[in-house]
Structure formats: C-alpha cells, structure tokens
Design brief:
single chain; 295 residues; alpha+beta; Nitrilase/N-carbamoyl-D-aminoacid amidohydrolase; 6-stranded mixed β-sheet; 5 helices; N-carbamoylputrescine amidase activity; Aliph_Amidase/BUP; Acyltransferase; C-N_Hydrolase_sf; acyltransferase
Length: 295
C-alpha cells in the first residue's frame, strides 16, 4: 500500500559498454541505492547498451530483447530480494520488425507492476530513433506499486505537457523520466547552456502544473563510436524536483551518482490545495487539443 512518505532514487551512469557489463553494473548500483534507503529506483533510458541510435544500422536490432527475458529476470529477482520498486528501461523486441523503447515497472515482490512503451519518438541528427522504435501503444499510465503510485515517461516524452498531465490525472505521485540526452560536442559552446536549461525548465514546469514530483535519470559520458563523427556528450545533470518545481537533488554533468529524495504526499496535497490547477481546468474548452493544428 502507498505510504504518506517514501524515498525515490535516480541513478546516473556511464553506459557505454556491452550488455553483460551494463547489466552487472546496474544491478550493483541499484543495490547501493537500496542500501542508502531508496524504495523506488530508476535507471537511465536503454540501460543495457551504448546509445546506438546515433546511426541507422540494422545490426543494432540484435541489442533488443523479448519481454520477460534477461532484464526482467535479473531485476525481478533483485527487486524481490531488496523489497524495492525498480524502473528498468530497455530495448524491447516485440516481434520480428516491431521494436519498442520500453520500461518495466517491477514491484517489491518481483512481479510486473506495469509496462510502458515510449510514446513520442524523435528523429534528430544522431538521435535516429524512428529507425528503431515503433511508437508506444499502451498509452500514458500511472502504476500502483507497494511503495506509491508512479508514472513513467521516457526521454522525448519529457517535452510534452499533455503526457505529464494525462499521467498525473491518473493519480501518479511521481513522474519518472529515464533519459538519454546530451550535447552534440561541436554545438555545445553555442547552444549548450540554453539546451540544458530548456530540458530542466520543461520538466520543472510539469512538476508545478501538475503538483507532482519529477525525477529524471540521465546517462553521462562521451559516446563516440562512429568514425568521422564527434559523438554525443551525455550531459548527466539528473535531478529530482518537488511539486513546486523546487530542486530536491541534482547530479553533476560528468560523474556517476545516486540521487535520493523523499516523496511527501501530505506536502503534495497541501500544494494542490493552495495551487488548485486541477480544480480550475476548463475541460469543456480543451477539445481542440487533439487536433494536429487549429487552422
């Protein structure tokens, strides 16, 4: 049952390694987070490999795994052993030709509390995700767990207030954003500060507009594995924000870290009572939001 207070954690890691090594590494870091008191723990996006979407290469589909195989087996056993909830973002092979960017939500008894498939799929230079991922078809969900009711969105989803709103309206205490975002090194000097600031601001805005906690788990490190390119410098800066957008914990740009913060449901309710954005929503006037454009 959900408690009035519980501790959440995001883990920030360099994941530029092979699947077997990344799995061992992440299992160890989750254990460390639990030992520090974390009760709901999130890994970064696509935890098991380097960020392969820098190119369009059919060989990278070999990195995908069927549902309830390697990742689920390993983290299910760990969740049950530690009595924690774990968010495990992975590359899902649904069937030949259909792949998703997904996340397991694993409950304290090792069972599946939910499955989320990334809804918004980007296609930017060196973020060629549309080549690999079919858009999610499970919708936006808040998942009841033994620790609390949590929502999971993934990376590009973080730019969409509609995704945050629909998840929060289902009663999520926290919006988790497993992420893989960074700078193109040749653009960092000119655009880097504004890009990073926008990333922080939009998610803090989701926290404020919905009166929820927000937790972003990013990776770090320069991943430069394609000859003739500068790669991607993942900017880290993972954070946890409270329901007024206040930063409760913030990581560096370049170190592997565990961030832990407390979710206080009494505080959340107080914030919503004083800033009653849900009460004042004009749902009678929002019908056009489902249109591509209003023209």
């Amino acid at each position: 049952m959900s408690k009035k207070k519980y501790k959440i954690a995001v883990i920030q890691l360099n994941l530029n390694d092979v699947a077997e090594n990344n799995l061992k590494k992440c299992l160890s870091w989750v254990r460390d987070a639990a030992n520090q008191g974390a009760e709901v723990i999130s890994l970064p996006e696509l935890y098991s490999s380097h960020y392969f979407c820098q190119s369009e290469d059919v060989d990278n589909f070999a990195l995908a795994e069927p549902l309830y195989s390697t990742s689920f087996i390993a983290f299910s056993a760990l969740a049950k052993e530690l009595g924690v909830v774990i968010i495990v973002p992975f590359f899902e092979k649904r069937m030949a030709g259909i792949y998703h960017n997904s996340a397991y939500i694993i409950n304290t008894d090792g069972s599946e509390a939910g499955l989320y498939r990334k809804m918004h799929i980007p296609d930017d230079p060196h973020f060629y995700e549309k080549f690999y991922f079919t858009p999610g078809d499970l919708g936006f969900k808040a998942f009841p767990t033994e620790k609390g009711k949590i929502g999971t969105l993934i990376c590009w989803d973080q730019w969409y207030p509609e995704a945050a709103r629909l998840t929060a309206l289902q009663g999520a205490d926290v919006l988790f954003y497993p992420t893989a975002i960074g700078w193109h090194p040749l653009e960092k000097e000119q655009y880097g500060e504004n890009q990073h600031g926008a990333w922080m601001n939009v998610m803090k805005g989701h926290a404020v507009a919905n009166g929820v906690y927000v937790a972003a788990a990013n990776r770090i490190g320069l991943e430069q594995y394609i000859e003739g390119t500068a790669g991607i410098q993942f900017w880290g800066s993972s954070f946890i924000a409270g329901p007024q957008g206040e930063i409760l914990a913030q990581a560096s740009h370049d170190k592997e870290e565990i961030l832990i913060a407390e979710v206080d449901l009494d505080l959340q309710e107080n914030v919503r009572q004083n800033w009653p954005f849900f009460r004042d929503r004009r749902i009678d006037a929002f019908g056009d939001i489902t249109k591509r454009a209003i023209d």
